[in-house]
Write a structure and sequence with these properties.
Layout lengths: L1 H8 L3 E4 L2 E4 L5 H6 L10 E5 L5 H12 L1 H4 L7 H4 L20 E4 L16 E6 L2 H14 L9 H10 L8 H10 L5 E6 H6 L1 H12 L5 H10 L2 H5 L2 H4 L25 H4 L2 H16 L9
Parallel strand pairs: 3-4, 3-5, 5-6
Antiparallel strand pairs: 1-2
Helix pairs in contact: 3-11, 6-7, 7-15, 10-11
The structure holds adenosine-3'-5'-diphosphate.
Length: about 290
């Protein structure tokens, strides 16, 4: 049921406690139950606002943890290796999964499992400069989700910060929420742009954080498999199976679109950029993250 359900449901969302979720793939009750999700000390959570590079870190974590992925002896989908806790579409009994477990979530900090605050489980939180994040969100929403279909791209973009919320809520609230509570968690912050500039360093940072001491050859192999070019053509990494019916070209992956820093410059007009800076200017001052814009 899982893939068909995803394809059918994308585009329909419901609002619960300030956040939109994909209808048919979860329920308000399931979201509420996550507060009491039983976290293990060995768990690793990847937490992102959508379109910040989630599938990228999933790929890296999967390659770090699963030899059978790295040496291509196992053909297991990423969402099975590193499931979304809020979208347990295959109704897996999470309690029965062996440790160490890897998880993904787009939840804001106030909906996350309470146990995470015990600080033993590890969290990797990825941010991306909001202009590129929003442009990536817009194209994704346009091709897969129907949420923004009838809007022009710029008003859809602004929805993420001050208008109609999209999946994940408001970008600013998500990033600020997790960042301002960072001392409550065992959390590593990564920036998408740092990964684009130096993928090997990012892989080493992740290995170090999760306590994996890999030899140079293995690290090189992980980096190679996590490049944009290789992920885009790798069906295990690019989620080509998600939302296929919504696409004009069947095999095209909407998760890996351009994979660059500064695409906003190709899309936004000077006036739009000024408007964006005005809206974000005040808000960004509160965030102690130095964003990389190009
Ligand atoms: P673009 O739409 O700007 O290309 P998410 O996984 O959170 O949905 O994020 C998707 C974004 O991450 C897309 O951005 C995608 O191209 C980018 N991405 C995924 N894998 C990448 C990689 N290996 N290198 C660079 N960018 C990557």
């Amino acid at each position: 049921m899982a893939e068909e359900a995803v394809t059918r449901s994308l585009g329909k969302v419901f609002l619960h406690r300030g956040i939109y979720f994909v209808e048919g793939l979860t329920t308000p009750e399931e979201i509420d139950s996550l507060e009491n999700f039983s976290v293990r000390d060995t768990d690793v959570f990847l937490i992102t606002f959508p379109k910040s590079g989630t599938v990228w870190i999933q790929q890296i974590l999967s390659l770090i943890y699963h030899k059978g992925h790295l040496n291509k002896t196992e053909n297991i989908k990423t969402e099975v290796r590193i499931p979304w806790i809020e979208y347990n579409i295959k109704k897996v009994d999470f309690e029965r999964l062996p440790s160490p477990r890897l998880w993904t979530t787009h939840l804001p900090h106030y909906l996350a499992p309470k146990d995470l605050k015990k600080k033993k489980a590890k969290i990797i939180y990825v941010t991306r400069n909001p202009k590129d994040n929003m442009i990536s969100s817009y194209y994704f929403a346009k091709t897969i989700l129907s949420v923004t279909k009838n809007k022009d791209w710029f008003s859809s973009l602004l929805d993420l910060v001050s208008g109609e919320k999209l999946l994940g809520g408001f970008w600013f609230d998500h990033v600020k929420g997790w960042h301002s509570h960072k001392d409550d968690y065992n959390i590593l912050f990564l920036q998408y742009e740092d990964m684009v500039k130096d993928l090997r360093s990012a892989v080493l940072k992740i290995c170090n954080f999760v306590g994996k001491d890999l030899d140079d050859q293995t690290v090189d192999a992980i980096v190679e498999r996590a490049t944009f070019k290789n992920m885009k053509s790798d069906p295990l990494a690019n989620y080509a199976h998600i939302g296929q019916q919504h696409r004009k070209t069947q095999k095209k992956s909407n998760f890996l679109r351009k994979g660059t820093i500064g695409d906003w410059k190709n899309v936004m007009t000077v006036a739009q950029n000024e408007k964006f800076d005005k809206i974000f200017g005040e808000k960004l001052k509160d965030l102690p993250i130095k964003f990389i814009w190009d």
